[in-house]
Amino acid sequence: MKIYLVDxxxxxxxxxxxxxxxSETDSVIIFFSENSxxxxxxxxxxxxxxxxxxxxxKVSVGGxxxxxxxxxxLLGYMVAKETYSHIFVISNDKGFDFLHAFWGxxxxxxxxTHVYRTKTISGAIEYVINESSNRKAEASVAPEEEVNDAxxxxxxxxxxxxxxxxxxxxxxxxxxxxxxxxxxxxxFKGLLKSACDENSYGIVKELFIHSQTKExxxxxxxxEYKQDGTEIYKAVKSRYxxxxxxxxxxxxxxxxxxxxxxxxxxxxxxxxxxxxESIQRIRKCIENTASKKELYISxxxxxxxxxxxxxYNIIKPYYSEIAQKVRENQ
Length: 330
Description:
By secondary structure, the protein is of the alpha/beta class. Among the domains are: 2-138, Rossmann fold (3-Layer(aba) Sandwich); 262-328, no CATH class. It is built from 16 helices and five strands. The protein has helices at residues 8-11, 41-49, 66-81, 97-106, 121-139, 144-167, 177-180, 184-192, 201-210, 214-225, 228-236, 240-261, 265-270, 276-287, 292-315, 319-328; strands at residues 2-7, 27-32, 53-58, 86-90, 114-118. The chain has a five-stranded parallel sheet with strand order 3-2-1-4-5. It is elongated.
């Protein structure tokens, strides 16, 4: 279900273009005032022919931006109810873009409802179509190994064999799948190269590891980096699923030897709080520090303040036992 909140004072009849294309599950609220209450005859006919539920709301005027405030307040109420998948503000006023940023996670967690501003209802319809197409495209993206490696590898293998026969040498060994599964860091850093500086890589990686969905990752980035978080997210989003698969394979390959070697208190107390890759990084922090204070500083540098403090507080009560075991296994 979608709802369209029309700032009629701003867009006039033109903003309602596309209203006749809406379905029975759509709703429209037209916000108007005594300053703007005239609908063209042509648009009136389209409104009458529309299958959508259409409501008119006369705004109480008397102050600057009265309509904007009342529309925004109603929008927040509707978001909280989580009745609609999309709420579109139909307006030329770019100030409404801040509602998209706000409900998109820059201040609070993103709800199920997607908030967006367009100039016309037809523009909003096109936005939904493009959004659906992008999701399908992302879902059908070929695995990285197939896209980047498959064709070249086949060519190299055939030419490599013929050269080897001429020189009576064994052909070069193909790159193993286990090696490819270790390339998460290289791939991730490559995607982030133009989106953020190297100092931010550790934070972004940690946010990626702890996210379960693209939406969670986007929200976490927005909280950490505000508007810049969206640019970082765009650099990664099309590869999100494949990166998750790559990381999981890498951790699976490392899991058995890791636990055979470090079957101790650290794994026991952290296994429910952070991924295996983070436990390894914490272990390194313990190995390279000699006191709780040094460990705290090291973990804040490694994971940034929020996560570093969270992990440190879990470890702190067991520090002496954990530190002894880790150093015994060095």
